[in-house]
Fold this sequence. Notes:
globular
Amino acid sequence: MGALHRSRRSEGGAKPNDYRRYVNMSANVLGYEMHSVGDSHAYELLDSEEILFRRFSPAGDDERQMRELVFDNAFLGRPFDVICRCKRWFSDVVLSPYIKHQAENIHVAIDRASGRLVGYLTGSTGGEQFEKLQYNMVRRQVISLAASLTMPWTLFDHSSRLFAVHVIFKGESERPRHPHAGVHWHYQVANDFRGQGIGRKLLERFADDAIDADFELIWAEVSSYPGKPPEYFENRGWSIFDAKPTEVFGNHVDFPVETLCITKPLSAFDTSIYTA
């Protein structure tokens, strides 16, 4: 499956790298270079006896389980249905840009005993070009939801209406600034599998992709609140690039929430053999 890829020349200062294991450069899509994971690497890697770490499989059940996981965790680690009941729509907003255009940068964690997907990471090496594509896709989805909520049969879903209106009118103003260079990531881990290093291993797998593609910086947007203050991320080696208060959770929380942009040099990751 193809994915948007930003040339390392546009990153200004990316270092050369002579090991490139997973990507094959091919066609040109929407003005971006397209690359795909070679067949021999489609389902690689076992990192532990309990958890299988591999790349996303579009042919299997990965997408459905990712949709369930993101919806169950999006409200500061809790189900998002108190804010927006439209599970399919919400998971489309969060996941579709990556599944459609950056599938090679999706990594999943599978519990071997049950076959359950217990974690995933979506990442982008597409830079600002991918972000513009993502923004346009998300905005279309949000506007479609807001329009549908004006119909009589959905007027009862007041919370979903408020969420859509908030994203339309305040979403961009509540986003922190982020670097123009580098790659970004987002991950989710099931509540009952947290504390086992699954998120860290998913992140190091993606960092390996980014290093192979000659990037030097990695960043993410994360939520910060009293239970997970900025120091939580700083103590784990991340720098706070910018922060913006957000009201996206509305009156569902009685404490302040900020969206942080956190950054870290890729040289901080030990990823040469996908172990951590």
